[in-house]
């Protein structure tokens, strides 16, 4: 069987799995971005009191395989709390948690390294604190972090494959089910790769475009 | 009148300004001379309230500040009465030069500064560059753009920190012309520099600062006959350059 035959024969199952993957990632992106920005700004404003614990958690999360985190959240934690949560929500929670700390790292770093002289220039040019934040700080930081955020989105998208471990009916699990039926791993997983290449290429190209677009606007 | 009395400031345990008295009248051009790290920039930062002094008094026109606790809030601005161009002359990198120059005025509700901006840009050779971003300009061009941004609100006091550091002779000459014209229109200009000739060509008075203290001050003609050995040494070296 060729890749195209797999796509032609199983496209509805694959698209259904892809829809679950995208919904799960979209929810994680929204939660992760909002929480991450809030945490990043909080880390910057609160100083060391929040910075240190956040760094510890961030370092642990960065070292922890997503597979293990999903397993912990889905089995031992739910058993300990005596609750049953749908696998897709557990997955969204795990992906959002990772994304939150990754985004917070990027945002906090951008705020910490923001050139102080640009703020001083705003101050001596009569801008209020609020005007300086909206007109100067925010647009520059947004330009700086956008490519990083897109990269994080790619990482989360790829990490979503592991949610098949806890039975989320996402695209990788669908591919596994198709493979169990016809045992054609090479074309099936190649077809799966095509979906990811298209989506990730879109995100990566957007990141590259933003880097190019903002090249002239980056402070030295 | 811009006046500082008994201004002192410490930074990192070091006395960077030590009982400094300084004054400049409207339309006056004053040179602030001294070696690198002597406290020129610190004094300008104190005068502009960017780094308020630890003690002393500061009067900017009708506004009086007594330190410590002279400021109501840490975010104080004297714009448009007083503007500054610091050595790094930071332009906002995400805005085109035109927007960099006009943003402060627009935020203060002044929408018709285009004519004044064109005039200043013409004088400093910036007109063809207005559509570009700061990173597309040379260091000298950025420095001149920062000067235009500071001159646009027609401030009563203009503080300039080594504003010629990236300029060629031709542009220094144009700057001198422009600054003289601004002074004639009422702007008092404080010129921190280590270029003795630039100071002599422009200033009416001078202050020589060393290790945070005003060592000598007086009319600019006094630079020909320094009273202190320290200034004599400084001028001797400066004249060799």
Give the CATH class of chain B: Alpha Beta
**What class do helices, strands and sheet pairing of chain B give?**
alpha/beta
Mean pLDDT of chain B: 90
List the uncertain runs of chain A. none
| Multimer state | heterodimer
- Approximate helicity band of chain B: 25-40%
Mean pLDDT of chain A: 91
Gap between N and C termini of chain A, in Å?
54 Å
Name the CATH homologous superfamily of chain B. P-loop containing nucleotide triphosphate hydrolases
State the gist of this model.
Chain A has 220 residues and is mostly helical.
Description:
The complex is a heterodimer of chains A (220) and B (241). Chain A has 220 residues and is mostly helical. Chain A contains nine helices and no strands. The model of chain A has no long low-confidence stretch (mean pLDDT 91). Chain B has 241 residues and is α/β, with parallel strands linked by helices. Chain B has a single domain (2-240), classed as Rossmann fold (3-Layer(aba) Sandwich), CATH 3.40.50. Chain B contains seven helices and ten strands. In chain B, the strands form two sheets. A six-stranded mixed sheet of chain B has the order 6-7-8-3-9-10, sandwiched between helices. In chain B, strands 2-1-4-5 form a four-stranded antiparallel sheet, with helices on one face. In chain B, helix 2 (97-107) runs parallel beside helix 4. Chain B is globular and about 50 Å long. The model of chain B has no long low-confidence stretch (mean pLDDT 90). The chains are: A mainly alpha (220), B alpha/beta (241).
């Amino acid at each position: 069987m060729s890749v195209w035959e797999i796509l032609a024969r199983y496209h509805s199952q694959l698209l259904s799995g892809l829809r679950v993957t995208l919904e799960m990632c979209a929810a994680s992106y929204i939660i992760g971005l909002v929480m991450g920005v809030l945490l990043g700004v909080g880390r910057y404003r609160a100083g060391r009191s929040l910075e240190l614990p956040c760094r510890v958690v961030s370092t642990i999360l960065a070292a922890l395989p997503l597979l293990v985190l999903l397993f912990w959240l889905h089995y031992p934690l739910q058993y300990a709390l005596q609750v049953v949560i749908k696998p897709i929500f557990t997955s969204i929670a795990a992906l959002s948690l990772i994304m939150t700390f990754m985004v917070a790292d990027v945002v906090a770093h951008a705020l910490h390294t923001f050139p102080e002289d640009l703020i001083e220039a705003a101050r001596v040019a009569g801008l209020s604190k609020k005007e300086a934040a909206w007109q100067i700080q925010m647009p520059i930081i947004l330009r700086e972090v956008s490519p990083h955020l897109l990269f994080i989105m790619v990482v989360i998208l790829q990490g979503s494959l592991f949610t098949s471990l806890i039975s989320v009916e996402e695209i990788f699990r669908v591919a596994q089910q198709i493979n169990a039926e016809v045992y054609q791993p090479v074309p099936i997983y190649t077809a799966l790769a095509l979906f990811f290449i298209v989506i990730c290429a879109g995100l990566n190209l957007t990141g590259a475009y933003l880097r190019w677009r903002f090249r002239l606007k980056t402070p030295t | 009148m811009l006046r500082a009395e008994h201004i002192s400031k410490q930074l990192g345990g070091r006395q960077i300004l030590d009982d400094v008295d300084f004054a400049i009248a409207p339309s006056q051009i004053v040179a602030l001379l001294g070696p690198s790290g002597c406290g020129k920039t610190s004094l300008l930062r104190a005068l502009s309230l960017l780094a308020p002094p630890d003690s002393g008094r500061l009067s900017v026109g009708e506004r009086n500040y007594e330190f410590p606790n002279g400021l109501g809030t840490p975010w104080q601005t004297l714009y448009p009465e007083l503007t500054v161009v610091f050595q790094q002359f930071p332009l906002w990198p995400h805005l085109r030069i035109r927007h960099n120059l006009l943003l402060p005025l627009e935020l203060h509700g002044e929408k018709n500064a285009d004519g004044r901006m064109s005039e200043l840009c013409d004088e400093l050779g910036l007109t063809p560059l207005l559509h570009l971003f700061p990173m597309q300009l040379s260091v000298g061009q950025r420095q001149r753009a920062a000067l235009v941004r500071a001159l646009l609100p027609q401030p009563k006091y203009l503080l300039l920190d080594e504003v010629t550091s990236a300029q060629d002779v031709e542009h220094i000459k144009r700057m001198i012309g422009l600054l003289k014209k601004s002074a004639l229109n009422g702007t008092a200009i404080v010129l921190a520099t280590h270029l003795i000739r630039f100071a002599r060509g422009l200033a009416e008075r001078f202050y020589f600062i060393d290790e945070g203290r005003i060592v000598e001050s007086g009319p600019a003609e006094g630079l020909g006959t320094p009273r202190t050995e320290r200034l004599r040494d400084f001028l001797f070296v400066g004249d060799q350059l």
